[in-house]
Amino acid sequence: MSLIRPFAGLRPGPSRAAEVLGPPYDVLSSDEARDRAAGRPYSFLHVSRPEIDLPPDTSPYDPRVYARARDNFKALQRDGILRQDASPCYYLYRLRMGDHTQTGLVAVASVAAYNDHRIRRHEHTRPEKEDDRTRHIEALDAQTGPVFLTYRSREDIDALVAALSRGPAEIEVRADDHVQHQLWPVCAAEPVAALSALFANAGPLYIADGHHRCAAAARVAATRAGQGSGHADWFLAVLFPHRQVQILDYNRVVADLGGLSADDFLARVAQRFEIETSSAAVRPAAAGEFGLYLPGRWQRLRIRAGEVSDDPVERLDVSVLDRCLLAPVLGIEDVRRDPRIDFVGGIRGLEELERRVDSGRAAAAFSLFPTGLDDLMAVADAGQVMPPKSTWFEPKLADGMVSYLL
User: What pTM value is reported for the model?
Assistant: First the structure.
């Protein structure tokens, strides 16, 4: 079975795209989404975060939220803001953030391939988040949040994508965060067939971001198969070559030092790390190196020889920090559930780590070297999972660019 196929996308026209496109549903709080959508009746946030149209104390999991999402989605179609293409197409989607550019293929990917490990995962999912995305898909009878997939780069695919996106984009929007979003529909039979043929031999696909959306799509497909419907056997995705994907650091802050003084804490850390005082903020330059910020001072940590494993999960810097410092020194055994630890995406900069500590909101902060995409693929190939909050991908895909009607 093919990994991907074209589809008749539902999307805004060029003159409406700027009014519609919104950030991914899971990067904003309800209050932030409400502020971003104020005065923008066609913002896709009314579909992806519909609690913003209900009383402020409404739970985002209230049944009324999913009903409002359905109503808002139908209204965008009824008013002609979103229109479906007449025939199955692929779409080329380019994101540009500063000097970084990446161009992906919007397609629908096979749920069967996900179930068979040909589309590979690297994270556990949480049941409540799967439930939320499942209910959203069922309410809309559509998938609106794309799964971010990656594949090992190939020159023949790169060349064809470059050729098909050489002219002016049909949609071009610069979002509030200054990320540029461009879209080229590819609907002619010949290039559609060429792209399908190339990806038939592209090897496995890897979930970079969107594990809950993917798992929810698989649940919907299983439910509908049991009802005799096979119309949900595919899920909305954007595929990027791995050499273009950008992973930023995903840093940690801790609320306290586990009852230790700063000096005792550093003495414990020194048992497994080399420590060097730094006069500037520490952005690790290589794997095995960490920054540690205590009030008013930065330290550079390097893991001592013999502490790094050959296991694809245990050798990750996030695992090294968990195993050699957070658990034995601070008693943080489960980073998924322990309220003493929080996570700060690298897009916020090292200054955010300093602010958290200097304000007293945290006792210490750790900067990490970004997880490599080769490491992600190695973990997924081994059928293993990474620790929570191992990767932070930028730039983010927009919601509302292209949706998939089931």
Answer: 0.91
